[in-house]
Amino acid sequence: MPGDEASAYEEVHLNGPRIGFTILSQGVLDKAREGSYLRNLNPFITQFGWQFETRIFRMPNGTAGLLEIVPLIGGLEQGKFIPSINALVGIRGPKGFEFGLGPNLTPVSANVALAIGTSFRSNGINFPVNFAVVPGNGGARFSLLVGFNSRRR
To answer: How far apart are CA 68 and CA 119, in angstroms?
Structure first.
């Protein structure tokens, strides 16, 4: 049906706040501490940010293609300002499980982020939970982020 094809490519935006934490492996922590600004950095970093999510397409079975941009500010609990940005291209299945891959940029490095997650839905509000791994710099960073959003066209 022609109407079904048009709605399959209708953009849907699911933007919203994110809060969570990142744990740095020892190799990543050592690399970050090389700069004087992050010399006293602890391996546990809080994260605050916003996720800009666009659903690019949706297949008849509910599988959707996604583009996510996630700028974060970390380290505030330590008196630090550590910005990062992620740009992920991903797929979300019909039951909410998602997978994404893309660049991660911080003042210390540029790497590739791999993220998995799911969303819980209640009263028209989505509550995403995502786990991300960023390998590189002699170790890895592990992040857990949660948030909320609602559908916007």
So the answer is: 14
Residue 116: which of 151, 61, 81, 66 has the closest Cα?
Answer: 66
pLDDT digit string (tens) for 6-53? Answer: 567 778 888 999 999 999 999 999 988 887 678 899 999 999 999 999
Chain position carrying tokens 């799911």: 118
Helix (H, G, I), strand (E, B) or coil at 6: helix
pTM of the predicted model as reported, rounded to 2 decimal places: 0.88
pLDDT of 130-140, one tens digit each?
999 999 878 99
53 Cβ contact list (under 8 Å, min separation 6): 13, 14, 15, 66, 67, 68, 69, 149
- The distance in angstroms from the start CA to the end CA of the chain is 22
Report how far apart, in Å, the C-alpha atoms of 49 and of each of 46, 70, 145 are: 10, 7, 9
CB 75 within 8 A of CB 96: no
